[in-house]
Amino acid sequence: MSAVVTYLDVAATTRVEPRVADVVLHWMTEEFGNAGSRTHEYGTRAKKGVHDARSFLAASVDAKTEELIFTSGATESNNIALLGIAAHGEKTGRRHIITSAIEHKAVIEPLLHLQEKGFEVDFLEPGPSGRISKEVVLDKVREDTLLVSLMHVNNETGVIQPVADLARELRETATFMHVDAAQGYGKVPEDLKAPIDLISISGHKIGAPKGVGALVTRRRGWNKVPLEPIMFGGGQERKLRPGTLPVPLVMGFYEAAKVFQESRSRWEREARDMRERLLVALEKTRFHVNGDAEHSVPHILNVTFDGLNAEALIVRLKEQVAIATGSACTSASYTPSHVLMAMGLPEDIASNGLRFSWFPGQVADFQPEKLVETIVRMQPEAS
Q1: What's the pLDDT score for residue 383?
Q2: How would you class 130 by CB atoms within 10 Å of its CB: exposed for 0-12, middle for 13-18, buried for 19 or more?
Q3: Rounded distance, CA 192 to CA 349, Å?
Q4: Cα–Cα distance between 125 and 145 in angstroms, integer?
């Protein structure tokens, strides 16, 4: 790929930070022990490294070390949380689940599976703001509500959901709270320190390698979240995620989280500056921002340009920027964004939303004015 192409798709994945890559390589080639090996120093050092990583990542959301297990990423974490709590729902007669229609497919599809098994699932729609109302969720809670599952930050619009407020409201009830924090971990840290029962995290959204994440299972007093394993064999990770731990990936996740935490204030400031530069440049076009700008992360912007086909625009812009439609990660064939459709936006807007997302330190040389010149040339005259 040409070096002049600016990568504006960090909501899909991020570049591994060089410092992180060095750590991963070290744990692949020098300290390559299995954390489960107890008879030699290679295993002992790997086990200590994993413990340090677990402690740091758990503390970043105000959880205890033993409340975090490592997974392959947020998709696996979501599946363990949602499918793993189903048995408790069946035993207790609590078969009602509340979620939103704008969730990632990694939440929607496991819940559709549970629906086929006899669970009742409410898929709430947010309206044009893209933000689910806390009051609407609470109004849906019933005596038999097992779980509320709501994403932290929407992966298409960047809209922040009221997960912290909901967690505090639900903490004294029998209803558990699950949050898919793939997009929000590290970026809106205070929200995840709320008493959320289950938090799914993905490393590759903050500069870690792909293939590693975590699930936080926060106790309520002495009581564990009643999860059953969905895989078996070996008993690792408190019997919830069997298999040999990928120590290099775990240590890379640990390092990436440290790097991001150290630079977060600068990251937020520069992300907001980039957003402002982009919005100012786009004023020369006719466009709509999709989602509540007042409750959004600074590094994701979803827009639709009047009279322009999103796929055609991506093709025209591919020598300048790497961007995506909101539905690009969920389907090989192009369909309207289920997120934008659930927000009640017209199909021509929902079918042509473009997501710009950036990592501030990696776009310093980006000139949005050149991008806008191409858009203006393509955009038809206003009727």
Answers
A1: 66
A2: buried
A3: 32
A4: 18
User: What is the per-residue pLDDT for 34?
Assistant: 79
Active-site positions read: 329
Return all residues near 232 (Cβ < 8 A) that are at least 6 apart.
242
Interval 30-61: pLDDT, tens:
889 878 888 888 888 888 999 999 999 999 99
Separation between Cα atoms, residue 201 and residue 186, nearest integer Å: 10
Mean pLDDT value across residues 189-210:
97
Per-residue tokens: 54: 């677990």
The two tokens of residue 180 are 């898919």
> In 10 A of CB 171, how many CB atoms?
16
Strand order in the sheet with 354-357: 287-289, 300-305, 354-357, 324-325
User: 213 with 186: CB under 8 angstroms?
Assistant: no
Beta pairing partners, 356: 301
Q: What are the percentages of helix, strand and coil residues in the chain, rounded to 5?
A: 40, 15, 45
Range from 21-30, 236-245, 248-257 carrying the lowest mean pLDDT: 236-245
How many CA atoms are closer than 13 Å to the CA of 7, on its beta-carbon side?
13
Structure-token match 């090989």, residue found: 332
DSSP letter string, 123-158: EE---TT----HHHHHHH--TTEEEEE--SB-TTT-
SS3 call for 265: helix
Report CA dihedral (338, 339, 342, 345) to the nearest 10 degrees: -100
Q: Looking at this protein, which amino acid is placed at residue 225?
A: V
Q: Give whole-number Cα distances, 376 to 29, 336, 369, 370, in Å.
A: 51, 24, 10, 10
Structure tokens at 80: 């363990």
Q: Give the global pTM.
A: 0.95
Give residues with Cβ within 8 angstroms of 328, minimum separation 6.
12
Compute the distance between CA of residue 203 and CA of residue 74 in angstroms, rounded to an integer: 8
Structure tokens at 23: 């750590």
The Cβ-side half-sphere exposure at 34, using a 13 Å CA radius, reads 7
35/234 Cα distance (integer angstroms): 13
Amino acid at site 231: M
Residues forming beta bridges with residue 223, ordered by sequence position: 220
Distance (Å, rounded) from C-alpha 353 to C-alpha 290?
Answer: 8
